[in-house]
Amino acid sequence: MLAFAALALTPARLPWIKPLRQIFIGLAFARAVCDRLGLFGKPGAPGVSWGKFANFTAYTAQVNLFLPKAMIPSLAVVETVIEGSLGIAMTLGVAVERVCLASAWFCCDFRR
C-alpha cells in the first residue's frame, strides 16, 4: 500500500512513475479479465476470484437484479470486453485521460 501511495504522490519529481503507474493499472484490469476467463486456475484456487465465466455471470445477475434475466449473459460479456479494452488501452498509453475517466466511471458503485 505504501508503494502505491509513493507512486501517486511523486510523479512530478520522477517522470518514469506515470507510465509505470499506467502499466500497473492496465495490468490490474487485464488480470481481472483473465481471472474470469479461468486463465489463473479453477474456482477456489489461491489468488482466483472467479475461476470461470459462469461465476462472473452469476455475480452480474446478482448485482443487476433489475434487469431481465435474458440480458445478463450479454451484459457480462460487454462488461468483460469493456474492462479488457480499458486495461489494454491503459497499458499501451492510448488516450490515457479518457481511459482514466472511463475506468473511474466503470468502477463506480452507483447503488449507494
What does this molecule look like?
The chain is mainly alpha-helical. The chain has one domain (19-107). The protein has helices at 2-9, 17-36, 53-63, 72-92, 96-107. Helix 3 (53-63) packs across helix 4 and helix 4 (72-92) packs antiparallel against helix 5 (96-107). The two termini are 26 Å apart.
Could you give the distance between the termini? 26 Å
Biggest sheet details: none
Structural class estimated from helices and strands: mainly alpha
Strand content: under 5%
Helix tally? 5
Write out key terms for the chains shown:
112 residues; mainly alpha; globular
Describe this structure in a few short sentences.
By secondary structure, the protein is an all-alpha fold. 64% of the residues lie in helices and 0% in strands.
Q: Which secondary structure elements does this structure contain, and how are they paired or packed?
A:
Blueprint: H1 2-9, H2 17-36, H3 53-63, H4 72-92, H5 96-107
